[in-house]
Amino acid sequence: MKADLHIHCSASFDATESIDTILELARENQLDLIAVSDHNEIDGALELERKGEAAGVETLSAIEIDCFFGSNIVHLLGYGCNLWDPGFTRLKNHYIEELRRTGRQRLQLIEEHYGLKLNEQAILERAKGRPYTNVEITQELLATQTHPLLVPYQSGERSANPIANFYWDQLAVGCWGYAELRLPEWKQVTDYVHQCGGALIVAHPMQNLKLDETAADQLRQGGVDGFEVYSSYHDERGRQFYHEVCQRWGLAETFGSDFHGTTKPNIVLGQTGYDGDCDAAVQVLKERIAHWR
User: Fold this and answer.
1) How many CB atoms lie within 10 A of CB 211?
2) Tens of pLDDT along the chain (293 residues)?
3) For residue 246, what are the contacts with CB-CB under 8 A and spacing of at least 6?
4) Of 191, 173, 192, which is closest to residue 73 (Cα–Cα)?
5) H/E run at residue 163
6) Which CATH number is associated with domain 3-92+184-292?
7) Which of 61, 76, 215, 235 is the most exposed place for a label (fewest CB within 10 A)?
8) Domain locations in the chain?
9) Residues in domain Polymerase/histidinol phosphatase N-terminal (predicted)?
10) Is the Cβ–Cβ distance between 252 and 285 less than 8 Å?
């Protein structure tokens, strides 16, 4: 079995490809199981659920929920839950309003930091009717501005995945460009996903937790069902660390490319960092889902 359980479609604020395109790419890459797990958004996952069987690809319902873990932010992947529960629609609407609220704040921070002025109307046009976010602001910044601190993202060592790299380097929690979103607490998310019959997996933990075993254990004790061990963001050290964590505590290990289409151009659907047979690990995940159902 070959699986990619962390894919974003155009329903997500930061991704570009349709469900039809994702299904086509899944067949091209000979994937047996996929999940669309958009940020605080369910429309793409529900569309995939409708179309997957006809396309000959097994699918798993999923969502990626941004939440606070202490002063940090973690992304938690809910698998197998009932996405028709009205709480997911409330989560979606709240997140959209938060993106709208923080967009202008982040734009001002970036303009002040680099001493420049961006064309807000052009940023709005890039957002195509949605609230503009760090994605559209960064696209406009890198496409139109000249500044020595931007060179690494425009043509240097961070340019292969410029929007994501700019976010993690400059705009994430603890950085000068962070605009605080009002997000749920991780324990609320864990309890809610379990109530909806789903298993809860920590997405790309090396991005948020690094090699912090104490934090990983706190999440385990709080109810998470596993970690995304194999991710396009993880090097061999990170994969080994979280593989050992899951083995030690009997948790589920998952596989995710975090594909976003053209907004993360160096990430290929199906390339998760694991080339072996996913079947045994997927069965553990399905057992966790069955437990909560």
Assistant:
1) 13
2) 999 999 999 999 999 999 999 999 999 999 999 999 999 999 999 999 999 999 999 999 999 999 999 999 999 999 999 999 999 999 999 999 999 999 999 999 999 999 999 999 999 999 998 999 999 999 999 999 999 999 999 999 999 999 999 999 999 999 999 999 999 999 999 999 999 999 999 999 999 999 999 999 999 999 999 999 999 999 999 999 999 999 999 999 999 999 999 999 999 999 999 999 999 999 999 999 999 99
3) 226, 227, 229, 252, 253
4) 173
5) helix 162-166
6) 3.20.20.140
7) 235
8) 3-92+184-292, 102-171
9) 3-69
10) yes
Look up residue 110 and give its two tokens. 């970036």
Contact 22, 54 (CB under 8 A): no
Q: At what angle do helices 120-127 and 134-144 cross, to 10 degrees?
A: 130
H or E stretch covering 211:
none
Taken as a whole, the chain contains a residue count of 293
101 CB-contact burial (10 Å; exposed 0-12 / middle 13-18 / buried 19+): middle
Report the alpha-carbon distance of residue 256 to residue 267 in Å, rounded.
10
> Could you tell me the pTM of the whole model?
0.93
Strands (E), the chain: 3-7, 33-36, 58-59, 62-69, 72-79, 199-202, 226-231, 252-256
